[in-house]
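#lab-general

N.A. 3:47 PM
ok so I finally got the sequence cleaned up, no stray characters, all 399 residues accounted for. can someone with queue access submit it? mine expired

B.Y. 3:52 PM
send it over

N.A. 3:53 PM
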Amino acid sequence: MNILVTGAKGFVGKNLVENLKNIRDKKNNTRPGISIENIYEYDIDSTPENLENYCKNADFVFNLAGVNRPENPEDFKRGNFGFASELLATLKKYENKAPVMLSSSIQATLQGRFGKSEYGISKKAGEDLFFNYGKENGIKVLVYRFPNLAGKWVRPNYNSAVGTFCHNIANDLPITVNDPSVELEILFIDDLVEEMYDALEGKEHRCEFDGLGTVLRKDGKYCAVPVTHKVTLGYIVECLNRFHDQPKTLLMPEIAPGSFEKKLYSMYLSYLPEDKTAFELKMNIDARGSFTELLKTEKCGQFSVNISKPGITKGQHWHNSKWEFFIVVSGRGLIEERKIGTEEVRRFEVDGDNITAVHMLPGYTHNIINLSDTENLVTLMWANEQFDPVNPDTFRENV
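B.Y. 4:20 PM
back already:
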């Protein structure tokens, strides 16, 4: 399959092209039904000859080219309607029956606050052009009205509030939020790309519109990405500030699979400057070695790393309800556990060449001993709750 992507250097185009390359080059094997031979990347610096050749040979067309912020409002029509006319005319010239996808906007509904949008009017004209082309030539046309787009590589201080917030907060720059209660419908780029894969496989999702609302319907005139997120500006900024502070708090917010928070965190990280890509952790050092908290979670405890010098014993305490995993990743050690009130001791020899997770059981005093005379013992530790200095649930007693 030969795929033509117009607007290939834009936000959506770049993400789509790079992911199509992953499929073409067998780096992504999640879509075995898609076989790609050539990806034709068309953008503003391409030549008319490029367009002729691409339209002659394409088996599927993603038309992502468009104008978002022209200096002259008249350029909306020229950019969002004019090029579309040229593209379709060239496809028709070569009698190319390839399916054509159009990237439109929710503003094309011309509903609510978009009723007089020059951008929306130009997008609506482009939609009508594509629908007429499909009807007159018996060609499959897929028109997507995208809401606010977000994700890695979106251009800040342009047409994405989320991109601007991510960039500015990551770089300690100020942001302005006039009304935190304003709700946005956000479509993340990775969900959009998955839908483009569906389109290539002939499994696109269809819809109609109820005002600004998308209503999924199998016989819908339009197409839609089925996964979007509706959130307020205030909540977006709240999340981003927590992400910003994570290197200091070590607290990782809950990021459930498929959640808005998970996708926003990934987007935020893509804007980190070099000097924030790495950050130091506080090491608690004494004569025995060191102990460093790595990561805290809202509901799933915390991770730490413990380094014990040769011959050193650490621990010698027990907990009522707290439990832990000790995982030795380097060196050779002995873990001992004794149930409180008994004499029986459980012993586990551990080493970094045979990584094993050992439960530290509630009600059992426990320790960890570095058996080496020369090497440090490095242990990754997980506790089921964050350490609370007011109520540490830790009681000293030798094994």
